[in-house]
Amino acid sequence: METSVAATRRLRCTQLALRPSIMAKLDILTYPDPRLHIVAKPVAVVDDRIRQLVKDMAETMYEAPGIGLAATQVDVHEQVIVIDLSETRDALQVFINPEIVWASDNRKVWEEGCLSVPEVYDRVERPDRVRVRALNEKGETFELDADELLAVCIQHEMDHLKGKVFVEYLSPLKLNRIKSKLQKRGRARM
Ligand SMILES: [Zn+2]
């Protein structure tokens, strides 16, 4: 299984080398980078620049690998989210200028992780169902009712656009431990 994934990635890299403008893997900011706290602006026009950003974000998410990525995490402060919860990694969902138009009173706890907070997983309580309104890559408005993991993922990624990282729901004690762990890691790598 590992081998076949690696082989697919190599293949993708070869294609990238042949057509370098098609997609690019972007760098993911790591907590507590202050740029993760910048509030993203709405996208004014869904044009080719935004569609290229979506492609680059999708490529970055698949390579990581992760199930969701917000533009904030790649240091682009515009309201764009990509999500793919499929096992086969071929069901990309794109949310531009997303808004929660309804959330259930019922709340549920899930264990969350984040590409910007490597190796940290913790429990966060959120509404268990949400209705989201957003634009797709063509600039068309759509609404979607989400539950289970998709509801969690949409809310997690929308928090990034507001400059909030999931660990900020945890206790100050836990948050400080996570910060110092990640800062040490960052120093060790330099
Ligand atoms: Zn995240």
UniProtKB/TrEMBL annotation:
EC number of this enzyme: 3.5.1.88
Molecular function as annotated in GO: metal ion binding; peptide deformylase activity
Catalysed reactions, as listed in the record: N-terminal N-formyl-L-methionyl-[peptide] + H2O = N-terminal L-methionyl-[peptide] + formate
SUPFAM superfamilies: Peptide deformylase
GO term, biological process aspect, one: translation
EC class name: hydrolase
Family matches, as InterPro entries: Peptide_deformylase, Peptide_deformylase_sf
Keywords: Hydrolase, Iron, Metal-binding, Protein biosynthesis
Keyword check for Protein biosynthesis: yes
Cofactor note: Binds 1 Fe(2+) ion.
Summary of the function given for this chain in its UniProt record: Removes the formyl group from the N-terminal Met of newly synthesized proteins. Requires at least a dipeptide for an efficient rate of reaction. N-terminal L-methionine is a prerequisite for activity but the enzyme has broad specificity at other positions.
PANTHER family to which the protein is assigned, alphabetical: PEPTIDE DEFORMYLASE
Name of the protein described by the UniProt record: Peptide deformylase
Species per Swiss-Prot/TrEMBL record: Cupriavidus plantarum
Species classification: Bacteria, Pseudomonadati, Pseudomonadota, Betaproteobacteria, Burkholderiales
